[in-house]
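Continuing the series of single-chain predictions for the mutant panel. This is the parent chain; the variants come on the following pages.
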Amino acid sequence: MDGVPVGVPRVPEQRRSDSWPESPRPVEPVPPARPGEPAPPGEPARPEVPAALRFSVLGPVRAWRGEEPITTGSPQQRALLAALLLREGRTATAAELIDALWGEEPPSQALAALRTYASRLRKVLDPGVLVSESGGYAVRDLGEGALDLAAAQDLATDADKARSAGDLCHARATLRRALALWDGETLAGVPGPYAEAQRVRLEEWRLQLLEARLDMDLEQGCHAEAVSELTALTAAHPLRERLRELLMLALYRSGRQAEALAVYADTRRLLADELGVDPRPGLSELQQRILRADPGLAEPSSPAPEPAAVPLRPAQLPATVPDFTGRTAFVRELGDILASADGRVMAVSALAGIGGVGKTTLAVHVAHQARSAFPDGQLYVDLQGAGARAAEPETVLASFLRALGTAGSAIPDSLEERAALYRSMLAGRRVLVLLDNARDAAQVRPLLPGTDGCAALVTSRVRMVDLAGAHLVDLDVMAPDEALALFTRIVGEERVASERKAALDVVAACGFLPLAIRIAASRLAARRTWTVSVLAAKLADERRRLDELQAGDLAVKATFELGYGQLEPAQARAFRLLGLADGPDISLAAAAAVLDLPVEDTEDLLESLVDTSLLESAAPGRYRFHDLVRLYARACAERDEQPPSEREAALSRLLDFYLASAAGVYAIERPGDRLVDHLETASYPGLRFADRHAAQDWLYAEAICLLAHVRQSAGLPRTLPRAIDLLWAAHDLSESGANSKEYEATATALLGAARAHGLKRAEARALMTLVNVHHVSGRFERADEEAERAIQLAREADDLLPVCWARNARGIIALYQNRHEDGEEHLSRAIEHFRALGDRPGEAAALCNLSRIRLATGRTQSAVALAQEGIGIYDAMGNSMRGANARYALGLALTQSGELGDAAGRLQEALEVFRDSRQRLWEGMSLFRLAEVDLAARRPAQAAANAEMALTVLRGIGGEWRRGNVLTVLGRALSGINQTGRAQVCWQEAAGIYEELGSPEAAEVRALLTPVRAA
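Parent structure:
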């Protein structure tokens, strides 16, 4: 970081006489053999080794023998032990120790008391540890690393070496280990002037280590995460300018420039009021650089990634084909450019968009040859540009960032922020990026490296003339001699040599298209009884072949027809039916549902299709079609699948599989909830899950495919009700943040379909999925309108369940809109409806929401009682996730009743469940409510930290109204720690949000701003 000292601070020296020798540097201890452990064969038996002594001074002064604590006596006795431990084996005279324990006014019997303390310590420690020498005492013969301070010094030294070597990941992790050795206040409860001096010395060192670690956090791009910690630290140490400087930089790099400048203004005012001085030059210089938007501040100086369970040198290139043939000029041209990469971008494009021309094969082959020029790794992605739903750049960037070592929690939400972090991480590295099957230049631009030394290789069906700086290559079909060579390498020289003319006929019939040639040759190679002439005759019999080969993509279809014709009946059926399902890929279990076969038989069929190149293995247990092969498979299904109703039956089984599995996830997460009893019946079984975590993993892993199939099922009145129920059962996806947009688009499409088909029951349930979407997004008016319509339709359809949940939703929305009387009516009706259905968890949900209405109208005791009743119902049914919602409601009620300790406890319990269940919205809201408790308990620094974390968690979810609430509380917390400039920025942003939404909270926030302006 510019202007920041580099290196890890060493522990400040103790004040001591010149006769004291320098401390030896501690080394890592070698663990002794465990008592009673047998000696290795061939060695004499070892005597039992006594458990080693360990001592702690970075916190209370404590001692252990092995894992057993040792009593260290009175405070003065602990002071003696601490004084001797901190001398690291050197002898301290009696006079020095008396001065250390009592200072200038020792008691008259100080020497006798000192000897008594020493005698007592000698009895509890090992023989020879506390020794008398030259009229004084010393602690000797401790095992290596026996003192926590020595271990911290050793770790700090290792961190300094790692940082000097440029290994920030190791340095940062090592400093975290060193800081973790502190357990509260150093030498806690130890009296005497010596202990007080050591406390000051070691606390200063701890803060220096903390600043060094935070500095490295910022160098690694963890800006948003650092803001919360730095806010709390600046509140605890308001005059420590280095912490203020780090906070300014973290805020600026998080896009919060106004708050960064406000920190400087707060600091300048505080220093002037408290010390009568100006900020140090480094802080003033940082303020000026922020005002100038200095580019040097925009990115961390080192993009080294967070250590994680992902490779730091990605090697994602697919395997190159062993029989790659021809393309010599293209290989040389592209290889030369890649080997001398200077930031240019190369696009490999097929002429006229012909599929199967070998774009990917060529790109992968060239990339493998150029790997040595890119020692920092190779990234690869299939952008699915030819499909109906091309890969989103945001999703691709998240995958790339994880492959480069970025922790999932550090990945920003927006496309622009992800692209900026991606370019920062590639700066100074030599990485090759292969972007396969791109849709257009707009999809590619955010994925390009930003500096020299890296290169991108792009394949697409379109010629990317609008991709600035790209080296364009038009890849045509193979030359006749190259096509024949490829055919020969696959089939074998002996079989081709005797039938050269027939072989030329085959490759000509394939239009010299590499994919067609490879498929034809593979079929021939797999059938040893066929001759080349037999294959040529088969190709010649294909009517209208040449016309189709000249019609663009239809040429690929003609080639696929040859491969499809060689499949066994069971393979062909699998090929046809699997091509019907939408989605980027399909799991083995889902494929088994489509085919109505056992999983083992399905796997055998799919692997055989992989061998024919008609199907790809996307990952273990997952399969995908090339986009053109999928279109061909669907055409085959329409033509060949008999009876035709089997196509609809296959997709219906897949829908049933997803519905039954999603219902299973819902039931595990919400025991006793009656929703699963009111869903459409699934005639095909779903998966069984071992526990809640396995169920959640499946739901989120299948989210894209599940939503794609829900959309696909909207076209038929027979499948639409099940599709809507599947969406309702999977409504966790709407609250996760990752799939919220896709979920909303799917719900909107299903609502339109239900209306078009005149299905009132289905329409009411589709409306309920959108009510939840609008509620989560903060669009309360829309949510209330949809809920009101759902009630009307559900009544007409005699479907009570949507009425229950719509009433519940309208009640909580009325709370948000300060319509408390309406809210109480809706929730009371919801409770009646849930009881009529025997839905105890639903009843508990309405009770907890009614608790919040009572709380808002000043009936605190009633609010507490209702929330406790809800908790009792949930706990009795083992419903931990819904129980967290009840504890959230109880936490709010207890906060208002002044029982702040209990309130914090309930909210913390809720937070842990929400975090474990991946409920980002409620995780963020729990942090927000904890901040409110901290404010009420006059802990503004902790309130600011929790509010900052809430803002981070709620990025991209929850809506602007909730963001305004969090900003308001953050402003109050910052004001409480005298960071009034930042507080004003937060309140101004909150006021702008409320005014845009027309929310009454705007007046309250404007009132908060008035005293600040007057001051």
